[in-house]
Amino acid sequence: MDWVPVVFVIFKVAALGIAMFFAIKWHYDQGEKGETLALVRTGGKMTAAFLAAVLAVGLLAFVLSGMLGLDLSFP
């Protein structure tokens, strides 16, 4: 039963990564060749924003769990 969250997290990260790749690829294909640098820069910014949001949500969940008295120690 302990492997279920691991599998779901890996699946979710893979699905979001694939979706982000194809979204950036589609936008890149729609743009003109002269806007390549701007598209790469925008993709980098979106990736950084996504990673920052994931980190913030994880940190918030960890802090809130600790404040509620949940046991967060590894076995």
Offer a quick outline of the entry.
By secondary structure, this protein is mainly alpha-helical.
Counting DSSP E segments of at least 2 residues, the number of strands comes to 0
Radius of gyration: 18 Å
Separation of termini? 15 Å
- The SSE order reads HH
Question: Helix count?
Answer: 2
Proportion of residues in β-strands: under 5%
Largest sheet: none
Give the averaged pLDDT, no decimals: 86
Q: Uncertain spans, ≥5 residues at pLDDT below 50?
A: none
By secondary-structure content and strand pairing, the structural class works out as mainly alpha
| Domain tally | 1
Label the overall shape.
elongated
**Helix percentage:** over 70%
Question: What would you note in describing this structure?
Answer:
It is a single chain. By secondary structure, the chain is mostly helical. The protein has one domain. It is 80% helix and 0% strand. The longest helix has 32 residues. The chain is elongated, with a radius of gyration of 18 Å. The mean pLDDT is 86.
Q: What distinguishing features does this structure have?
A:
75 residues, mainly alpha, 2 helices, 80% helix, elongated
Write the topology of this structure.
Elements: H1 3-30, H2 36-67
